[in-house]
Amino acid sequence: MSDRVPLTRINRGRALGKLAAGQAVRTASSRLSMIGRSEQARELLAERSTLQAADQLVTVLGSLKGSAMKLGQLLSMLEVDMVPEAHRERFRQKLARLRDQAPREPFSVMRPIIESNLGALSKNFRDFDETPVAAASIGQVYRAVLLDGREVAVKVKYPGVDEAVRADMQNLALFTKFWRKALPTLSNSAFMDEISMNLESELDYPREARTQHEIAERYRGHPFIVVPDCIPELCTSQILVTEFLDGQAFPYMQALPEEGA
Prior knowledge:
single chain; alpha+beta; 2 domains; 5-stranded antiparallel β-sheet; 5 strands; 55% helix; globular; Kinase-like_dom_sf
């Protein structure tokens, strides 16, 4: 990753520890501030504390990327016990930025990864949009056009993300101890194991390319299911190139009315 993204276990652990400590201080301060206040005032203080916690989570977990950012993405879809029920939806909406508006790395950081794997951009691409169409926990996706005119999505790992994920797997156990009272879900070893397994799978681009090709072949010609196929000769351990298809984001699909409703 870029210079601003810590890679070592100590540096990433320090960032997670500060985040957990900050939440503990914020919770204690909020409780003290509520003493003697009216119900309306307590409600406003609770909301402010909730949104401050969400903003800090988004900033820290988003900048760390890797497993830490994946944790934030999953929290955006869960019932978070530390948040008063009346404010949970706004808290989730804040954290949803880690799914839909994740911090982007500049192209000057990502281009060397592309060219070290595939050679100069002009060797394989007629056009390459330097602005990512999406950013996630372990990489960014770019839109490009191959020399033969096919539109493709180019998924590129952040530099150093493999090392960062390994560091996080060691740190997250410590992180969850700090947050156990606030987030009982994190005390569940199955939940943390799911994060670890999910990220290990996401880091394996060659496996992902093979799986995506198999699924694309299986559904080729289907009347309404379309799966973008990979471009095998342009897929490496750090780059995944697939056909580009337009679609709708997950929140849009969630908002669609149920059939018959």
